UniProtKB/TrEMBL annotation:
This is TonB-dependent receptor plug domain-containing protein. Pfam families: Plug. InterPro entries: Beta-barrel_TonB_sf, Plug_dom, Plug_dom_sf, TonB-dep_rcpt-like, TonB_box_CS. Its main location: membrane. It is found in: Cell outer membrane. Residues 41-151 form the TonB-dependent receptor plug domain. A motif (TonB box) lies at residues 29-35. It comes from Citrobacter freundii. GO terms for biological process: siderophore transmembrane transport.
């Protein structure tokens, strides 16, 4: 059953018809997921879609799974931390998730290898993402049998090498038209800057989301999710990454009346 909803987001969209320039820009897009090294998208030996930082900023996406709904061949089912993502009709356990080329999911994260996993909860907040690369089709030769359906690689923004801290904060709300359905609230934040000028920088991300409980039989339970990360590294990449921490807390329960 589809529950209609109204998003508390106002957006103005301006569309220009410049197909030749748009095609040229797409051909110049650089990807890394298909081979493990940088190459232009037209040279990649796979069918790839890229969700750019600009597209993420222009649209009212709530999270990565929300953005993936616009990619041809990708099907998102479920919601919250139990979303399943399948590519080209393959079962969702054959969709491999990467963050900066490092895997965050395996079929072992799913009970009995066929139920909803929690890997989506480990994906970074949208504010910290540079682009999302989606390979549609088998990539088991490079990534193993977990990638028989395809690969989703989330590329995050690099630690800023400027002398000042920069960041962004985004919040949105979904108010259900049917008031027996729970509303959804979400905030995500990103900040990056120097700790020791020219030597050490930091990148901090955070996300909080809350979905209220439905007041209908067999509806959604209340769910709260907190997701954060900290990366310390040399801005000039003279040193390797020093430390990277990531945490997630998901709470889902029935409210007793």
């Amino acid at each position: 059953m589809t529950i209609p909803h109204v998003k508390a987001v106002a957006a103005a969209v301006c569309v220009a018809s410049l197909p030749s320039l748009g095609h040229a820009a797409e051909q110049d897009t650089v990807v890394v997921t298909a081979t493990g090294f940088e190459q232009k998208i037209q040279d990649a030996p796979a069918s790839i879609s890229v969700i750019t930082k600009q597209q993420i900023e222009d649209k009212a996406y709530r999270d990565v799974t929300d953005a993936l709904k616009d990619v041809p061949g990708v099907v998102v089912t479920g919601g919250g931390s139990s979303s399943d993502i399948s590519i080209r009709g393959m079962a969702s356990q054959y969709t491999l998730f990467l963050v900066n080329g490092k895997r965050i999911s395996t079929r072992g994260t799913r009970p009995n290898s066929d139920n909803s996993g929690i890997e989506q909860g480990w994906l970074p907040p949208l504010e910290s993402i540079e682009r999302i690369e989606v390979i549609r089709g088998p990539m088991s030769s490079l990534y193993g049998s977990d990638a028989m359906g395809g690969v989703i690689n989330v590329i995050t923004k690099k630690v800023s090498n400027t002398k000042a801290w920069t960041g962004s904060l985004h919040g949105d709300a979904t108010f259900q038209e049917d008031r027996d359905s729970g509303d959804i609230y979400q905030t995500n934040a990103y900040a990056s800057g120097p700790l020791i000028d020219g030597l050490l920088g930091a990148k901090v991300t955070g996300l909080f989301s809350h979905r209220a409980e439905d007041k209908i039989l067999n509806g959604y339970n209340e769910q709260r999710m907190r997701n954060g990360g900290l990366t310390l590294m040399n801005p000039l990449m003279i040193l390797v990454k020093i430390i990277k921490l990531r945490w997630i807390h998901i709470l889902s329960y029935d409210q007793m009346v």
